[in-house]
Amino acid sequence: MSMGLYLGRSKEKVDYDGDFASFPQDINEYVFDNQHLLPFDVSPLLQIDPFSDTFLTTEQVKKLKVTTEHILHSPVLRFDELNYNSLKKVLILLNKAIEKGLGVLVEGD
To answer: Distance between CA 33 and CA 56 in Å, rounded?
Structure first.
């Protein structure tokens, strides 16, 4: 259930050679399984199908950015260094998309 994120203008116009980030599978699964315990909105993440490709508009990217920031700074969640760094890369990619007015293709397994 690992999800790869790429910048793009549409589902058909994605820069596969450019920036890339991967949303950690175990964090995605934990959020899904424990969403009722988390004190913030996780729906932007849960609305992404981890088994297919989903294109997020800039507005959806903004919402996913807020959710990712909450996950990253949540006192409820603890990460190893690899997952922490992966989430930081996701935030960097989401910020680039917002700054450039692009969307993000989330590629599922």
So the answer is: 23
